[in-house]
Amino acid sequence: MFTGIITGVGRIVAVQPLGSSSQHGKRLSVEAPAGYLDDVGLGDSIALNGACMTVTSFDPAAGRFTIDISAESLDKTAGLDREGPINMEKALRAHDRLGGHIVSGHVDGIGSVARFEQVGESWELCILAPGALGKYLAYKGSITVNGVSLTVNRIADLTDGCEVSINLIPHTVENTALGSLQAGSKVNLEIDLIARYVERMLSGSAAEKV
Known about the structure:
Blueprint lengths: L7 E10 L8 E6 L13 E4 L2 E9 L4 E6 L1 H5 L8 E7 L18 E11 L2 E8 L12 E4 L2 E11 L2 E8 L1 H6 L10 E6 L1 H11 L2 H4 L1
């Protein structure tokens, strides 16, 4: 589990195919900030742009670690198949503060940045999310974008999806990889875990309807 509070901005520095077919995944080499790997062990979970991944090797002295990502995960996420900056969060410990919201590290859909522009001292990030996720999104509710816990400021259901408007304060832009986004960028989205269960309870199970 995670909180959506980014603990470091790393960089994918190498992408190595694990086979020659489309059914093979890739091995990513990630460069972490100084000291980031001091308390990391083999097999630990680290969320990369909101997707929970397992550390398969690491070198604290070099500040690098590797993860293996399957073809299925590559197909269901964005930004994990190429070199570039990446948001990172270590798995939540029992005694940690829950500063954001409960995040599972499972990507529910890929959104597209419709607009990203400065408004006053802050930034407005507008994302076109898949229509299927619209029922889980609400005004002042939570959404995770590339692993960052954010608050929905405005929402509009459109014919081609659901547009979500989010306000980013300068601290968020400066201390995450969201600052590198631009119109057309693909982003990983995770809906609020509680909203998922509420929808399930309200819809009722097939057994209850018999």
